[in-house]
Amino acid sequence: MNNDIEKVLYTQDQVDHRLDEMATTLTNKYQDEFPILVSVMTGAMVFTTDIMRRLNFKLNVDYVDVSSYEDGSESTGKVKLVQDLTHDITGRPVIIMEDIIDTGHTLKYLADLLANRGAKSIEICSFLDKPDRREADVEADYVGFKVPNEFIVGYGLDYNGLYRNLPFVGVLKRAVYEN
């Protein structure tokens, strides 16, 4: 599996350090709140779990499963809600936990959906941001790392369901996904 990685962008130590910083910022902001963390599955599960354990405030966790990828490598731009929330978010602060902001279509759809359901506030916490691919008008409030316009895998991000378990963030070799 490691032979499929062209280069490592962020090591496990770099990821851990950045998560510590992000968790401190979130804890300072939400200390007296009772937010709901909404993890965008499946990619954000590793990020959500790791940052959640670092947070020092009361919270609920929920998840949604949305999809805009049909073939595994390119966004269609059309978002489909596969699994909805189980919590009522009316009047609650919501922190959307995302693995990567690419085109932005998924997060724009999700932020609008949750706003229409009466969330007190909505903030986006994304592990990675790929601004060169942005098509929708959406930005994260908290970003772990900015990444280049390459196919990124590891630490929850996948290609065809593979590579999520890599403990680092890497660039997938072009030959792997172009065949």
TrEMBL record:
Record keyword Cytoplasm present: yes
Pathway(s): Purine metabolism; GMP biosynthesis via salvage pathway; GMP from guanine: step 1/1; Purine metabolism; IMP biosynthesis via salvage pathway; IMP from hypoxanthine: step 1/1
Reaction equations catalysed: GMP + diphosphate = guanine + 5-phospho-alpha-D-ribose 1-diphosphate; IMP + diphosphate = hypoxanthine + 5-phospho-alpha-D-ribose 1-diphosphate
Gene3D superfamilies (UniProt xref): 3.40.50.2020
Domain Phosphoribosyltransferase: 13-159
GO molecular function annotation: glycosyltransferase activity
Matches recorded under InterPro entries: HGPRT, Hxn_phspho_trans, PRTase-like, PRTase_dom
One Pfam match: Pribosyltran
EC number: 2.4.2.8
Keyword terms of this UniProt record: Cytoplasm, Glycosyltransferase, Magnesium, Metal-binding, Nucleotide-binding, Purine salvage, Transferase
Intracellular or extracellular location(s): Cytoplasm
Enzyme class: transferase
Cofactor requirements of the protein: Mg(2+)
PANTHER family for the chain: HYPOXANTHINE PHOSPHORIBOSYLTRANSFERASE, HYPOXANTHINE-GUANINE PHOSPHORIBOSYLTRANSFERASE
Role, per record: Purine salvage pathway enzyme that catalyzes the transfer of the ribosyl-5-phosphate group from 5-phospho-alpha-D-ribose 1-diphosphate (PRPP) to the N9 position of the 6-oxopurines hypoxanthine and guanine to form the corresponding ribonucleotides IMP (inosine 5'-monophosphate) and GMP (guanosine 5'-monophosphate), with the release of PPi.
Family affiliation: Belongs to the purine/pyrimidine phosphoribosyltransferase family.
Protein name per the record: Hypoxanthine phosphoribosyltransferase
Organism name: Limosilactobacillus walteri
